[in-house]
Amino acid sequence: MNQTGPTIYQRRIVVGAALCVAAFALVGVRLVDVTIFKHGAGGVVSDHSIFARADIVDRNGTLLARDLPVVDLYANATALDDKQGAANDLARVAGVDAHRLLAGFKAATAKKPYVLIARQVTPDVQDKIKHLGLPGLESEPNTKRYYPQGRATAQLLGVTDPDGNGQSGLEGGLDAQLRTAPSEAVQLSVDMRVQYILANEVAAARNTFHCIKAGGLVMDVNTGEMLGMVSFPDFDPNYRHFTGDDTDKNIMAGDRYELGSVFKVLSFALATEDHTMTPDEVFPIGNGFKIGKYTIHEAEHMPATYTAREILAHSSNIGTAQIALRSGGVRQRAFLDSLGLLEPRLTELPEYARPLYPAKANWGTIETATIGFGHGISVAPLSYIAAAAVVVNGGRKVVPTFLKHPEDGRGAQLLKPDTSVKMRELLRYVVTNGTGRKADIAGYDVGGKTGSAEKPILNGHGYQAHVLVTSFLAVFPIDNPRYLVFVLLDTPKGPPMSILAGNTAAPLAGRVISRIAPLLGVPQRPVPPGHENT
Amino acid sequence: MVRVLNTLCVALMGLAMLALYHVSEKTRVAGVQLSGINREIAKEQSAMSVLQTEWAQVAGPAQIQVLAERNLGLSGAPAPQLASFETLPRRGDDAPLTDTPIRNASVTQPSN
After folding, report:
1. Is the complex ipTM more than 0.95?
2. Do residues A529 and A465 make contact, with C-beta atoms less than 8 angstroms apart?
3. Residues in CB range of A459: below 8 A, 6 or more apart
4. A452 in catalytic set
5. What is the mean pLDDT of residues A227-237?
């Protein structure tokens, strides 16, 4: 049997058919790849995909920070005939230094002909430069961070550098989050309405009393959310040119203060918790309280005796010192530690301040007495309000946050709920019958405490007479507190009695509450006719 | 028979090549158009982004307060003068605020 293999033609047909099959298979594989595995890869670009950082919005969605398209502008110096004229024109329109441009143009070579004119040139400036009609101008797309709310959010949001890296404020603290998902806005706990009102009122009070610095905080005592934070002097985050006393320092988070009498709230809370005093117990006040070689005095004349309630209401140092001494230094230190006052208060902000307080071995009798009324310990205002929130929110630990977190954020029970109830009654008494009367806003049961602390002498011992830091801690509505307002005025000017906290910080807090309470939906109680004091 | 099949295969191959080229070219043109549309979308989004930012600025509380004070003569109302729609009586109902018409006002909790 003669078996012959395929002919040359048959082989060619097989090879041709194989090539056809391979070609179609390739097309088929590619089709599957494109339609199934890479589906959507070439779709519509997502919103803001050209930008490097996510938007920042407030709790209601109001825009606070956004990347806007700008360009970095370069000039090909070899294409410029009149370098001097071009440098002058570009400097005038772009707002840069003409000498730098001219030096750059002269130094440019054929190998390195490009000179940077300006970074982050906005569209309106681009148009003006275009109208100059200069040859050799080239641009590179870039972005610029813009803050539509301006100075009102300056210290809170901070700024980015020209390369888009967060430098301060929440821009710095949330840098990684803002970069990870540029298309997803980061929602803060801040309410822009509250933030603006706080800024507006604190700035007005700072001007009235010619203060060096001033600040304010608004916090939800149950969730820990910060609804507002302002610090003055501030700056314009969109121009970043500091003028006058502008600064990017955030005194509420990054500075520490001896806060004075607002600390009495903590001494009373501890004494109430430990049952070492009752509100109606009578204490001797007199004309000075000697502890060893030191004598504690009052800021103003006071009667021979006061009940504990009156001690807080009229802010007696002597009475509070006695109450603090009943708790003792060890217990006082442990209590302040449990409230987080002996550690820096860390939040989403990069700014924080380490507290200053006596070493354990030096925490003696006089230190216990003075710390009881807020001297001898310096903390950041943000740290203080986190501790004060525990006193009024049912006694549970709460951590301040700048990210939206509407759920109950209260943690460990640090004080008995009953202690918190008693403290609210005392704080309300301070406002109705004590130094905080000017914060009593009709319809909103405000509780609070004044603080007028003499400032320590810089690089020395002792305190500066009549140079005060005044502050006010306010909580409302006092029967079931939701919001805490804290304001601080650094070195208010005026006659001695007129610059105490009751005349400076308390009315400021009252004005803030009267404006933000309706916006925050706080139910208003009926006001008897003739008592509409606001 | 084989010759006919060969011819048919070659013809089919030619046709397939032409069809493939046609599809490829249409895809390329569509790709170019898509790129153009994407650029337009990005441009529009960029413009919208700028406008939204401008709106956030001009509608911000600082601007509104200045304009209200300058042009409308308005100033901050005392809290007891503020009320919400929920407190207003329905038609035919007795006015619930007869005694203290404004001072009983309350406002609702905003949604978080």
Report:
1. no
2. no
3. none
4. no
5. 95
